[in-house]
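This entry is retained here.
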Amino acid sequence: MRSVRVTPSLALVLALAAGAVFVGADGTPQTLPFTHAWTDTGQITANDTWTGVPGIQGFLGQNITTATGVDPQTLLTTSALADDLDVSANQTNPNTFNTGGVAEFDGIANPTIALNGSGTADAPYILLALRTTGQSGIRVTYTLRDLDGSVDNAVQPVALQFRVGSTGLFTNVPAGFVADASAGPSLAGLETPVSVVLPAAADDQSELQVRVITTNAVGNDEWVGIDDISVTAGGGPPQPTLSVTDVGVTEGDAGLVTAHVLVRLTSAAGPGGVTFDVATADGSARADNADYVPLALAAQTIAEGA
C-alpha cells in the first residue's frame, strides 16, 4: 500500500494515479460517559481514517520497541516515525487477514476493531481522547475478544495506560493488564473483561488519553478485539484534603514565642468553602507545666476558590 503523509496545509483528499487516499482522525477529547460498541459499521470506511469515530484513533506503534514478546506494560512512549496512524477498514476474516496493526472487522457476526502485532506494528494500540473536567473515579471498561480461530497461537498480552494531555510518557495501570488475551491454536471466542478505576491523576482533566496496547508476539500473532468500550465517572469533582505543616520554635527562658502553623488544601475549596477546627494537645510539652498556651478554635474557614 502506498503511504501518504498529510500536512495541515494539504487537503485531506489527495488525487493520486492509483486512486484517492483518505487520511484523517478525530482526536477531540470526548466528555463522559463515553461508550463505543462498534455496532455502526459505517464509521470506518477507508484505511487509516478515523474521522468518523470521535475520540478514538489507532496506531501501529512503530519502533516503540523492536523486539518480540515485550511486555506492553513497560512501553510508555509513542512512535517517532511518520504515518503511524493506522486502521485496515472493512475486513471480514480474522483467520486469513495477516496485516498487522489495527483492523476493523465489520464482516463478522459481532463487529469490532482489533490489534495484531507484526514486524511493522511493533506495539499497536488504540487511543481514547477524553475530558474528565469536574469528574472523579474514572472507570475504564472493555472486553478483549480472541477473534483468530486459525492455527496461529501466540501469547498476546494487553496493557492499559493513560496520560494527562497529549504529550509525554504514559502511566501503566497494572490492574488493567491481561497476560494473554488469546486461546488456541484453532480456537476463537475467548472473552476477557477489563474494568479498572484509573488513579486520581486522571480526575478533573481537560484532556486525558487512555490507550489499550499490545506488542509483536513471539510466533504468529492473533487478532484481539477491543469491544464494548465504556468510560464513566464515579462522582463529582475530587474533594481536597487538608494538611498542617510541622513547626519548630526555640522557646528561650522567658516570655512567649509565637509559632505559625500553615493549614493548606490540596486543591481549591469548592462551593461554600471548607470549615475546620483547631485544638492543641499535650505531647512532649504540657499545658499544665506552662510549656505552651492551649489553643482551641472552632469553625475556621477557607473560602471558596482559595
About this structure: Confidence is low (pLDDT under 50) at residues 1-23.
